[in-house]
Amino acid sequence: MLALKNVEVVYSDVILVLRGISLTVPDGKIVALLGANGAGKTTVLRAISGLLDIHNGEITKGEITLDGRRIDHMAASKIVRLGVSQALEGRRILAELTVEENLRLGGHTSSKRSRDNLDRVYTLFPDLKDRPKFIAGYLSGGQQQMLAIGRALMSSPRYLLLDEPSLGLAPLLVQQIRDIIVEINSQGTGVMLVEQNAAMALSIAEHGFIMEVGKVVMDKPAAELLEDDDVREFYLGLQGEDAASFAEVKHYRRKKRWLS
Amino acid sequence: MTQFLQALINGVAIAAVYALIALGFVIIYKSMQVLSFAQPGLLLIGAWWVVFATAPPEEGMPTLFWIVMMAAVTGAIGALFLLSREVVKAAVAKSLFVFMALVAAIDVIWVAWVREGDVGGLGWPFWAGVIFALVIAALTGIAIERGFLRPMVGKPVFAVAIMTIGIDVVLRILAIDLLGINIRSVNDPWGIEVLKVGDLVFQHRQIAQVVTAIIVVILLLAFFKYSRFGLAMRATAFDQEVALTQGVSVSTVFAMSWAIAAVLATIAGVFLGSGFGLSPSAGVTALKALPVVVVGGMDSISGAIFGALLIAVAEQLTVTYQPTYAPWLGQGFAQVVPYLIMFIVLLIRPYGLFGTKEVERV
Question: What was the pLDDT predicted at B144?
Answer without folding.
Answer: 83
